[in-house]
Amino acid sequence: MARLAQTAGLTDVQQEILKTVREFVDKEIIPVATELEHRDEYPQQIVDGLKELGLFGLMIPEEYGGLGESLLTYALCVEEIARGWMSVSGIINTHFIVAYMLKQHGTQEQKEHFLPRMALGEVRGAFSMSEPGLGSDVSAITSKAVKDGDEYVLNGQKMWLTNGGTSTLVAVLCRSDEGHPEGTAPHKSMTTFLVEKEPGFGEVRPGLTIPGKIDKMGYKGVDTTELIMDGLRIPANRVLGGQTGRGFYQMMDGVEVGRVNVAARGCGVAQRAFELGVSYAQQRHTFGKAIAQHQAIQFKLAEMATKVEAAHAMMVNAARKKDSGERNDLEAGMAKYLASEYCKEVVEDAFRIHGGYGFSKEYEIERLYREAPMLLIGEGTAEIQKMIIGRRLLEEYRVQG
Ligand SMILES: Cc1cc2nc3c(=O)[nH]c(=O)nc-3n(C[C@H](O)[C@H](O)[C@H](O)COP(=O)(O)OP(=O)(O)OC[C@H]3O[C@@H](n4cnc5c(N)ncnc54)[C@H](O)[C@@H]3O)c2cc1C
């Protein structure tokens, strides 16, 4: 029988990349992930290894020093990495979203300035829409940019920046009234600013403070922070694409590929939970036989494996749609919604199979149990995905007349 989550139609190059990443995950990530996670320690050695593999430049075009691979290749790599440790996939995800936004929307000068160093992992990206008062409702953003000569002055507070401390380039979404008078639709008066900064915490650039890490229930190791702008001056040539008022669309484009990435993470975490469950079920004995021989446990394994397969198929479909140049908001929304819900359920079942031991920090499933919920929230909650899916369905199935 084929192993779960296989992907048909991959090229030799894609297969080779995936094999390399899988070996790296098995050798360098899985053996240390749980220990590092319990210490909330940044996986510097793993990140250095990913740099060497060229993972930070996987989707950056070859002319800028990257590997020029597709979203599908990237998503399959993310799936493998998340199987090892979800936090590591978080480290490359925001970097990738920013590189993608630059590639799609940046000026030529911006691409040449950032992309070659991003491909090497020397410049590392974070992206910032959320604020303390909003996450789902992006149109309510209050951070503000005001033009002052050749610069913009930014003020406001941002929340939940993945890689907020370790990144050196943050794509920040602000409201910008210049050229967009009072009464302009909210999504037409937003601008993405490319904010360069030093890594670390405290005042990392005049007018820009990154307070310490937010203490989280899971998804540890990777830093998640706030960002405070107090008179932060950004030159006009660091407006993404050189034009104000385009920020909302640019961010939504980035989030669309981010959703495929979160779906891929859900697939990876669910696969790992299945692997742990199916292995434990064959080792633990009750009532004279391995628990895998009890039909109730076999049914659980069957349900888990079916969910792993279904989520993988939808994630691959969403990635291929985007790679074909078509709009994929429906497919990405469905994949993100299904993969994150299934991930939570598969992890829960693997946890139950472990009995009391699942509750012990000595067992890997305990870590997965704290990681899975983040996928229900990041890159848009389940409710937001359903709103996107519902709206698109009504467009497609509009009743005429
Ligand atoms: C670990 C972590 C990392 C993150 N990283 C980043 C990052 O790098 N960059 C970034 O910008 N953001 C990041 N986020 C923020 C994330 O995108 C938001 O948390 C998410 O979008 C939800 O927003 P919220 O937390 O404000 O919840 P809210 O928007 O306040 O929602 C609260 C609840 O209400 C529901 N709800 C909201 N509106 C509706 C509606 N219209 N109809 C029905 N239900 C609704 C939601 O589904 C949810 O259940 C991160 C979050 C976490 C936890």
From TrEMBL:
This is Acyl-CoA dehydrogenase. Its cofactor is FAD. Residues 126-230 form the Acyl-CoA oxidase/dehydrogenase middle domain. It comes from the Bacteria. The lineage of its organism: Bacteria, Bacillati, Actinomycetota, Actinomycetes, Kitasatosporales. One of its GO terms (molecular function) is flavin adenine dinucleotide binding. InterPro entries: Acyl-CoA_Oxase/DH_mid-dom, Acyl-CoA_Oxase/DH_mid-dom_sf, AcylCo_DH-like_C, AcylCo_DH/oxidase_C, AcylCoA_DH/ox_N, AcylCoA_DH/ox_N_sf, AcylCoA_DH/oxidase_NM_dom_sf. Residues 11-122 form the Acyl-CoA dehydrogenase/oxidase N-terminal domain. Belongs to the acyl-CoA dehydrogenase family. Keywords: FAD, Flavoprotein, Oxidoreductase. Residues 245-394 form the Acyl-CoA dehydrogenase/oxidase C-terminal domain. It holds the Pfam family Acyl-CoA_dh_M. It comes from Streptomyces katrae.
